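Re: that chain you flagged

S.,

Sorry for the slow reply, it's been a week of failed gels. I finally had a moment to sit down with the sequence you sent. For the record, here it is as I used it:
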Amino acid sequence: MALQRLEAACLVRPQSLMVRFDADHFLLFDGEGRWIDAFEAGTLYKRGLDGRVLQKRKGVRRWLSREERALLHETVWQSADKALSAYRVGGLTARAIASDSGDFFSFGDIESWLKCCIAYEPQRLLEEEKRFREVYTPIPILPPDDYNAFIVQATQGCSYNRCTFCSFYRGEPFRVKEGTAFQAHVQRALAFHGKGMTRHRWIFLGDGDALMVPQTQLLDYFDILHALLPIAPTTLSKKERVAWAQQVPGRMIGIDAFMDTFRVAFKQVSEWEVLRQHGLDRVYLGVESGYDPLRHFLNKPGSADQVMEMIYRLKAAGVHVGLIFMIGVGGDLFAEGHYTASVQLVRRLALDRQDHLYLSPFYPQAGTPYVSVAEKEGIRPWEERRMQAELRRFYRGFAAVTAAPVSVYDLEEFIYQ
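Prediction finished late last night. Pasting the structure tokens below so you have them in one place:
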């Protein structure tokens, strides 16, 4: 990765600094000066806060080794240093983009920001990986709309953790943080993100099943978050909350979280209403399928009717939902039942434009029980062409029966930035 040419501009937004060398070369930095994206000649590099780097080029993706990351950090650092030198002598133009409140960064801020960027020397970026692990346990999954959320881990792991297909929390016991431990965790997370908090607009309450903890403890978590972060008043409409958060970098629109679909008895509508009044905006549910035989095959507790009841309670409380369906799971053996029952389930749900449906391509993970169980049943993983055809079929089927947006959710590309 060369990134030698300096023909264009620094572009400053309240949440990020872009150094654009030409149409095919740019670097993107967060408020702390840590690089997060780098693009050159058709290749995109995305650096996660945990230190991992994903390389994407023409549909091919791979994770860089530690040695490759170190070399890339060096190249980015040298490019940032050259950008600062060029800016000081007028060889690099600059343009500031206003925040939604109308405030501009001054050009003097650009120089200060570039100094922060070059302060993150390659070794310091590698050491950030250790800092991240001191704050967070591994973050294996987030919903697509929350990839840039401010994550706080109220729990660790998954309270069920027996779905045959899931590898995210294998061997990890489920733990729940007490109030004081959670508050200390949030404070450490805020210190780690630093000025990078300006990139975040949502709070995600993790890990995989945080909303199953007792209501009083959940409310303690929410009170701690409100004490430490500016969160939009829930008396405002969704549109007004978004506008409120955009006025000042660092303001939060609301709180999102995962919840298991079979825990319908854990919360009544009134309890969900209280959580909404405390900032809960969207709950993501791993429905996987509306076909009960397939759910049973996956060792996924509950039924499609229980999924409906859970969604009814959330919607009745004014909480939006994000529903995740796995495409290709169960192979040809379950394909028709999976599609037909899932479309029927979505048809029966009173979803609106504030909800979301996600189609997640399923690729069996080595070491999970699904692999051996599927092999016994003669179920083979699909080739990419078959997967893409089924994604299109589900997309058309869902789009025909609901107003909720439908999009693809590719777990293979998740990286927390």
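What I noticed first: The mean pLDDT is 91.

Talk soon,
D.
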